[in-house]
């Protein structure tokens, strides 16, 4: 179970107990490969967000098997799971979730600060990355002065700054117009995908399907089928 | 991450200033009211504090506090002097007299202290003009600055002016600084023999006997021996001062009223700071969730919130204490407000209380963030 970046078998997740139990994931078999961008698509409420939350270690699974970057994350203690996330995972959220009082460069530096790097060094490194992402002139701008596309670029920089092996994105283009969405996906494709890195993108946006190497279709808590590029 | 906590705190200026204001206001009210209360209570024993040359006070056994005394017969003075523990003992008169000035007829109740005719023990030690031994001149008194200011308003301090007490014309032979009495009345000093003539109508007129222990004996020990030998109440100046304070605490509404104000300051400070801090945390909940998802531990986030609370607590406390200090600094030369100042104990006590307020304010927020599921960040 360890040759892919993410691999799940029969993964299940229930919410609630007893009569009020809601089974959101019903035996999910899923894989995300190194060097690929995997899109996870499906109707609202089908379990996409729950699946990436479980994969990212933000929610505990109820059953099944799962390996993330070769590690059985379910077996990790809570503090080990936090450390694992900090070292290996990057996140891009639909609503960006940037800290409103930090500048673009400071926001992108947060994972480095969380890892204990000095403020000066962390901001220098994040500034460098933001410049590469085309945000050079807006390094000291606060989030509320940035456009949606620019904020998402900062969020992507924050997700990549510490060199994670797996980047998990939740609807990264949902709040953006077509052009910005296209540009963000292109950026993700160029910067986040690498030989030893994988990207999982949850999306509703069919306009960005072209960026996926694999598209896993999900419905009613299960993966129904997977399309690969060229098929 | 301390930097991130600082920026998160100061990013929302309105809430940041609201938090600081709540704590500063609470600190000011608590420290100011507590200082006024302590100053007021200290004023009740002013005449005890001002008698600096005797450490033992002897009085009727039923005396409850300084301002309500049953005078002693003269032979009690000899009984106290006859006690082995006593080096010396002298009479002291304390009473109220109406003082009047001839010029315009204005008058005012005055605390009249009659000090020993020979030794002048019990006389004022802090002279603003003249000397204590001026009391040895016939029909002379020493008036404190409050009295001088009242009877001779706008005039520079000057000796030789005359006042009238109970149809006796007296010359102001000295002007002293006295500790402010509980009721801010003027204080006048005269020799004992003059003082009892000025107000005397009772059979016994000796309010107190003040004494000094024999060498090698502590004041406590000597006071105990005087009590045993004479049946009178004998106490150290400190004990008598505290008993006077406790009398006022137990028998007046002053502590309750001040206590209520301090309590209100405490409650308002805690509620406003707590609510603002909680709202601040709620508004940043998604950001905290994002930090947790990124890999910031609960302990680190708790540290960030506590640091934010410590920052607003410290700044609010400093501003509040500075406001109180500024008040007392601005009023320090006002004779009517003398004796009011901020005690170091009050600063320390308020600091501990403010730390408690900041801690309580942050606890609810910490709980909210600690139980927060980081997956919340994926819910649009």
Structure at a glance:
Chain A has 231 residues and is an alpha/beta fold. Chain A has helices at residues 48-55, 78-88, 104-108, 110-114, 119-132, 148-160, 178-192, and strands at 6-15, 22-32, 37-41, 63-68, 89-92, 166-170, 198-203, 214-219, 222-228. A six-stranded mixed beta sheet of chain A has the order 5-6-7-3-8-9, with helices on both faces. A three-stranded antiparallel beta sheet of chain A has the order 2-1-4, covered by helices on one side.
Q: Biggest β-sheet of chain B: count, sense, barrel? A: 6 strands, mixed, barrel
Return the CATH architecture of the domain at 6-97 and 164-228 in chain A. 3-Layer(aba) Sandwich
Write the CATH homologous superfamily of the domain at 6-97 and 164-228 in chain A.
P-loop containing nucleotide triphosphate hydrolases
The helix/strand class of chain B is alpha+beta
What is the approximate shape of chain B?
Answer: elongated
Taken as a percent bin, the fraction of beta residues of chain A is 25-35%
Characterise this structure.
The complex is a heterodimer of chains A (about 230) and B (about 375). Chain A is α/β, with parallel strands linked by helices and about 230 residues long. Helices cover about 30% and strands about 25% of the residues of chain A. Chain A has helices at about 50-55, 80-90, 105-110, 110-115, 120-130, 150-160, 180-190, and strands spanning about 5-15, 20-30, 35-40, 65-70, 90, 165-170, 200-205, 215-220, 220-230. Chain A has a 6-stranded mixed sheet with strand order 5-6-7-3-8-9, sandwiched between helices. In chain A, strands 2-1-4 form a 3-stranded antiparallel sheet, with helices on one face. Chain A is globular. Chain B is of the alpha+beta class and about 375 residues long. Chain B folds into 2 domains: about 1-45 and about 255-380, no CATH class; about 75-230, no CATH class. Chain B has helices at about 1-10, 15-45, 45-50, 75-80, 145-150, 190-200, 220-230, 235-250, 255-285, 285-295, 300-330, 345-370, and strands at about 55-60, 85-100, 105-115, 125-130, 140-145, 160-165, 170-175, 185-190, 210-215, 235. Chain B has a 6-stranded mixed barrel. In chain B, helix 9 (about 255-285) packs parallel to helix 12 (about 345-370). Chain B is elongated, with a radius of gyration of 29 Å. The two termini of chain B are about 25 Å apart. In chain B, about 45% of the residues are buried. The model of chain B has no long low-confidence stretch (mean pLDDT about 90).
């Amino acid at each position: 179970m360890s040759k892919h970046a993410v691999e799940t078998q029969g993964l299940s997740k229930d919410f609630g107990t007893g009569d009020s139990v809601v089974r959101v994931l019903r035996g999910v078999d899923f894989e995300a490969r190194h060097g690929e961008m995997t899109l996870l698509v499906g109707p609202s409420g089908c379990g996409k967000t729950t699946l990436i939350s479980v994969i990212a270690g933000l929610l505990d699974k109820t059953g099944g098997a799962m390996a993330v970057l070769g590690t059985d994350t379910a077996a990790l203690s809570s503090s080990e799971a936090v450390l694992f996330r900090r070292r290996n995972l990057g996140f891009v959220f639909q609503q960006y979730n940037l800290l409103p009082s930090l500048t673009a460069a400071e926001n992108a530096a947060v994972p480095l600060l969380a890892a204990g790097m000095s403020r000066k060094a962390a901001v220098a490194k994040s500034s460098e990355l933001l410049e590469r992402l085309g945000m050079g002139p807006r390094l000291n701008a606060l989030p509320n002065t940035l456009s949606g596309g620019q904020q998402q670029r900062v969020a992507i920089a924050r997700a990549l700054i510490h060199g994670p092996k797996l980047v998990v994105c939740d609807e990264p283009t949902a709040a953006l117009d077509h052009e910005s969405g296209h540009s963000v996906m292109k950026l993700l494709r160029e910067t986040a995908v690498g030989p030893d890195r994988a990207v999982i993108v949850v999306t509703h946006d069919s306009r960005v399907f072209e960026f996926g190497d694999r598209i896993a279709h999900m419905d009613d808590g299960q993966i129904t089928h997977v399309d690969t590029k060229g098929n | 991450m301390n930097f991130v906590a600082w920026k998160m705190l100061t990013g929302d200026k309105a809430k940041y200033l609201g938090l600081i204001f709540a704590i500063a206001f609470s600190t000011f009210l608590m420290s100011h009211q507590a200082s006024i209360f302590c100053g007021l209570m200290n004023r009740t024993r002013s005449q005890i504090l001002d008698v600096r040359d005797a450490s033992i006070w002897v009085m009727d056994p039923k005396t409850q506090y300084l301002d309500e005394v049953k005078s002693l017969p003269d032979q009690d003075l000899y009984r106290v002097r006859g006690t082995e523990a006593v080096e010396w003992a002298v009479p002291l008169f304390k009473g109220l007299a109406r003082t009047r000035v001839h010029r315009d007829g204005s008058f005012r109740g005055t605390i009249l202290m009659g000090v020993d005719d020979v030794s002048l023990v019990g006389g004022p030690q802090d002279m603003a003009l003249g000397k204590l031994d001026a009391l040895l001149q016939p029909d002379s008194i020493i008036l404190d600055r409050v009295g001088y200011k009242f009877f001779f308003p706008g005039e520079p301090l000057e000796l030789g002016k005359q006042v009238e007490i109970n149809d006796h014309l007296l010359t102001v032979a000295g002007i002293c600084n006295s500790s402010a009495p509980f009721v801010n009345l003027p204080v006048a000093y005269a020799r004992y023999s003059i003082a009892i003539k000025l107000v005397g109508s009772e059979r016994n007129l000796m309010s107190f006997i003040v004494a000094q222990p024999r060498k090698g004996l502590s004041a406590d020990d000597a006071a105990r021996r005087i009590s045993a030998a004479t049946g009178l109440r004998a106490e150290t100046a400190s004990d008598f001062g505290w008993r006077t304070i406790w009398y006022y605490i137990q028998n007046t509404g002053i502590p309750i009223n001040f206590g209520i104000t301090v309590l209100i300051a405490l409650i308002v400070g805690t509620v406003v700071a707590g609510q603002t801090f909680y709202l601040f945390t709620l508004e940043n909940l998604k950001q905290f969730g994002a930090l947790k998802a990124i890999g910031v531990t609960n302990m680190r986030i708790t540290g960030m919130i506590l640091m934010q609370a410590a920052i607003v607590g410290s700044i609010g406390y400093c501003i509040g204490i500075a406001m109180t200090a500024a008040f007392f600094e601005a009023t320090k030369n006002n004779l009517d407000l003398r004796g009011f100042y901020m005690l170091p104990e009050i600063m320390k006590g308020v600091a501990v209380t403010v730390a408690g307020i900041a801690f309580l304010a942050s606890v609810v927020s910490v709980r909210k963030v600690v139980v927060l599921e980081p997956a919340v960040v994926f819910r649009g």
